[in-house]
Fold this sequence. Notes:
This protein is of the alpha/beta class. It is 44% helix and 15% strand.
Amino acid sequence: MTQIPHSLASFSLKDKVIVVTGGNSGIGKAIVEGVGSLGAKVVIDYRSHPERTEELIEEVGELGGQSIGVQADVSKLEDLQRLIDTAVQKFGKIDVMVNNAGIETRTSILDTSPEDFDKVMNVNLRGVFFATQYAAKQMISQGSGGRIINISSVHEDWPMPNNTPYCVAKGGVRMLTRTAGVELAGKGVTIVNVGPGAVATPINDSTMNDPELLAKLNAAIPIGRMAQPEEIASVVAFLSGNGASYMTATSVFADGGIMMSSPGL
Length: 265
């Protein structure tokens, strides 16, 4: 009988402890549901709507996983540290840190206020930077290493006019992953970005509720439609498992081909 390589036999997430920021809505909620259904112990970070988190905890239990909710604002460093500490106190370790929380202002270089800029940077870049630092220190100290997955965007590399602060932050996350991934590789901590394209979540309601805009967007995507949150969550689930053990300091795009689309001129 042919022996199955270890990495191909190790897609289960049973007993892995996974922290998901912004975990009670959109892509984060789908990630929690996905990894929970594969047996993970999930720490759901949320900033608002505790009732949604309670419903999600019940759902994860029905799917066969375990989860807890932690109300923490990722733009506040004391909240981030408390999130890490609570995960360890409850489950004893952290195997995977998913930095998913994000916001946008949909403002251009000319009309972005300092307040707009700081708000986006504090969540989308500063929060990710220090969540990575705190999680990595925990993973190293526990002796088993771990994985950090940043939910970035196609806009870490692909301009989106009139959403400049968001693009700048995601570009920073790209270099954070590349640089910290190299720094931490020898310490047993790997880092990978997941870059979604257009996803059917509340952040895109304005587009989805406008038939003309939605048709224009779908026409620009080679696959012909927006992604469902579950399609991004499945990529995160794979990266959370041992099958992705040789991946670090890089980005994986799940965008339906939109970054490669061309008018064919």
